[in-house]
Specification:
The protein is of the alpha+beta class and 109 residues long. It has one domain. It has 4 helices and 2 strands, in the order αββααα.
Length: 109
Amino acid sequence: MGSLTKTFHCTALELRALKVLGSHYFGEVLGKHSDIVGTLSDETLRVVTDDAAFIDRAIELGLIKGCPFVPDYSDQDADGTSAAPGCFYNAGFTDADVRSLSVAWGFIR
């Protein structure tokens, strides 16, 4: 038995997207055959602070990293657009929101 915790920084849009995705596969992080899938929801994701100066300093000191739950949607259309899942559109994300996430998460440049 065990538990996983992670402190990271993300934008409000990224936080909203994580909640739409709903889960993240961690793998066998708690030992062989542990096969851990975590839930990404209001109950499991908590905003610790939105103080930009504090967050910038914590990043500078290496205390927190970027969003660790970026999904692997590395496939891209021929025109370079993201293969981000339709669930974002179904949840009310605009084209600009999806493009912003795609750029932030490295799906497109």
